[in-house]
Structures are given as C-alpha cells and as structure tokens.
C-alpha cells in the first residue's frame, strides 16, 4: 500500500501526522488496553499487540506507557510489538488514587471531552465543574451533555442553572440517549477524523448513548439505583470505537474518584479571581475582613455559596496535588523546590 493511501486510512481514525515511520514500522491507534496486551486499529482492522520491554520497566512513569487514543509505532512479529508512542496533541489525565503522586492518562489525541451527567439524581453541577477543571489543560474542548431528558421535567431549569454557573460559551446539550434523533446533536463533535472521549459517573447513560451513536447494541447497559441514580460499571475498560458518523468515540468506565493533577489553572473560576482583586486588602482571606469583595458578592447573590465552596475545595485539592508533584520532582532532580504554589493573591498589602 502506498504512503498516500496509508495516510488517508490513518486520517479516518484521527491521525494528524505527516510523515510515516521508517521501514519495518507501521502507525496504529490504541483502541483498548487489557492485562494481556493492547488492541490496535490501523484504520481498516483491529489487531492485538504487546508493549516492548521498555514500557514494562519498573519505575517508568505510567503516563509514558501507551494509552487509549495514542498513535503508536508497531514492529511486525508474532505478536506485533509497540515500540514507540507518537507525540500526543492532546491528553486528558487525572491523578491516580493513592498517596503516591502518579498521573493516569484517561484518553489521548481527542478533540472533545463529552462530560455526561444524568438529569435525574445524577445531576451534580459541582462534579461537572470538577470534570471541566481537568479538561482545561488537556487541549480538548469540553462539551456538557445532559442525558435522560425523557425522565426529567426539570431540564429547562437545570440547563439555565449550568449556563449561569459555567463560563459563557460552554456547549451544553440536553438529550435522550436512547433516541437517535435526539443524540444526533452530538454528530457535530464526531465528524470524520474527529475524536471524542465520553466521561461521567456510573449510571449516567454512557453505554446507552454509545450504543445509540453506534446504531447497535455494542456496549452492555445496566439499571440504576432508584435512590441516587447510580449504576454498576457496565463498561469495564476504555475502548475506542469508530462511529457511522465518521468520528471516533472513546467510552470510559464510570470514575468513582476524579483527582486533580495539581497543574490546573481553575480558569473556570476566573470570575472569583477577579472579585478577589477588588478586596480592600491584598492578603484578604475572604472571611470576616472588612472590604472583602468576595463576601460582598456572596451577600448580594452575585456568587452562590455552593460555587464558592466548590472553588475552595478544588483550589485546596490542587494545592495539595501540586505539593505532591513538586516533592516528586525534587526527589528526581535532587534539588530544592522551585515551583511556587497557586493562590488568589500574594501576601503583600495594596498600596
């Protein structure tokens, strides 16, 4: 097969590169990862492969290993072996659970992150803000998707609540994940060559929506508990799927824990940062200090207590994760920390 035809084939699964690797190597995309190895897609077919020994080294940063969505270079063999991961143009990651700092890649090389939340008891604006905070530095565009439109009569109020709470211009779509006509609004994010990752809690309707977009019962679905609208993990691993619309969709298991990495800017809360600039004192703690613009906004209703509390929670978590990251970097370089912590403002007072 000629280079032109190979590149055209790879374009269909989202490859944006220009040069193919040298003789004896081919490019493929990671479609799934299992304990026994990887499933790769070359634009025409799916095949199994094993990672080269380098990726199995103890102490290797997990973020350096192939992840779902990665484009990798593969050498022929029985089985074929992944020998290199091509540079990622976007990467969505989270801090892994546990006391040691490790970053876990959720998906690589995606154009959109579809943040799915049910309009039933799963609806949680604070959780949506957490997802969007992680998406900020990924290079991908967040899209909020509200599912289960067919079982909710409060979607108008909830959409209005999110529009008032999230940055202007954030795409928000309410739909019925079982209805192809309703789900068609997402085709704009799943055009040929585009890639999206679908994230959300268990029971939000990810597998149901995926099946609708596929036009087939590909993913297992499950019931949700009536008292909190949560479900069991019907998706057990991340998987990249090619859709009839021409795009690629990465479905993910429900995530019980979604920890910040420590490198978030929290631009989602830029309005709160702007408020803090108007405080009388430069080192205002935003408690009982006189002339606190944040407290004034809380009293006037310009800032809701729920959003303020969520900002504080995410900010403190980011600082904790940033400290863990810096400690890890210190051990690696054997030097004193050089990264200054984030904060609303410095310790000096205004002139």
TrEMBL record:
An example Gene Ontology molecular-function term: GTPase activity
Pfam families: RsgA_GTPase
Subcellular location: Cytoplasm
Residues that coordinate or bind Zn(2+): 279, 284, 286, 292
Comment on bound cofactor: Binds 1 zinc ion per subunit.
Enzyme class: hydrolase
Keywords, comma-separated and alphabetical: Cytoplasm, GTP-binding, Hydrolase, Metal-binding, Nucleotide-binding, Ribosome biogenesis, RNA-binding, rRNA-binding, Zinc
Any single GO BP term: ribosomal small subunit biogenesis
Domain CP-type G stretches: 99-258
Location, primary (coarse class): cytoplasm
GO cellular component: cytoplasm
Region Disordered, residue ranges: 327-351
InterPro entries per UniProt: G_CP_dom, P-loop_NTPase, Ribosome_biogen_GTPase_RsgA, RsgA_GTPase_dom
Cofactor(s) essential for the protein: Zn(2+)
EC number: 3.6.1.-
Reported function: One of several proteins that assist in the late maturation steps of the functional core of the 30S ribosomal subunit. Helps release RbfA from mature subunits. May play a role in the assembly of ribosomal proteins into the subunit. Circularly permuted GTPase that catalyzes slow GTP hydrolysis, GTPase activity is stimulated by the 30S ribosomal subunit.
Family to which the UniProt record says this protein belongs: Belongs to the TRAFAC class YlqF/YawG GTPase family. RsgA subfamily.
Record text on subunit structure and interactions: Monomer. Associates with 30S ribosomal subunit, binds 16S rRNA.
Name by which UniProt lists this protein: Small ribosomal subunit biogenesis GTPase RsgA
Source species taxonomy: Bacteria, Pseudomonadati, Pseudomonadota, Gammaproteobacteria, Lysobacterales
Encoding gene per record: rsgA
